[in-house]
Amino acid sequence: MPTSASFPQLSPQRLRSYILRLPLITRIILIVIVLFWIAGVSNGFQHWAQLIPTEVIAGGMHRINTYPLLHLGLIHTVSNLIALAPLLERFEAEHGSLVTLILFTGPFSTFPAGLYVLISHFLLHTNTPVEGASIWIFLLLSSQILSLAKTQPYLQPPEYGVLPRAYRIPTAVLPLLLILATSFLSLIHVLPPTSILGHLCGAGIGYLWGLGYIKFLAPPEKVLRWIEGKLNLLGRIPHYVSVDQKVYGRYGVLPQTTGGAGSSGIPMSAV
What residue ranges are annotated as transmembrane (predicted)? Predict the structure, then answer.
């Protein structure tokens, strides 16, 4: 029989340590989501920030940036924060803080919103408001699952019921299955109301990013490196992730010493 030691223990110390390790843009986005939840107590603010197709077409273009930060209530906010934090942290650690800031205040918000407005208003002729960071969650999940699919193309579920023994699930479709599952749970009122179209729009952009078709949306590393050096962002801003993390480690180049391990001239990276 498994003991309590077999399962990971969530302690306040571990939670605090995890929060303190979050990179810059990840923690800023999470904080802004909490602030939007507080402001969302006002119905007027809710209406101002929601993604409503007719309002966007009428000129409320700010909505294509504000809707992922707004949530329906405390449960919706907390559940999305828990799901978003590790995915966003991983993205920022891989691509750097500047790229994360540019993409999540730009295309990763506006492109899913644009798709949703076009399909909802012009094809389906509906005007359902959407809000919540779940669009980002499925975007990140879809883009990151493609990396896993390269090494593990299929997942073998446990044998159950009438499913054939050799039945396999393509790894790349897991986000789509999760979208269907969350929509079903929302339908039976286990989860807050969700938009399957909104989730699919987010996942679609995530797949395009993961496949490399829209990587041009990220500014060239040469430009980012120049900005970082000119403004000394790595030295001035705590928890900033340098664009050079792929070469020199997650937080850029550490200062060199005249002796010891650093004397060989090889850049040392944070562990």
Answer: 18-39, 69-88, 100-124, 130-149, 169-190, 196-218
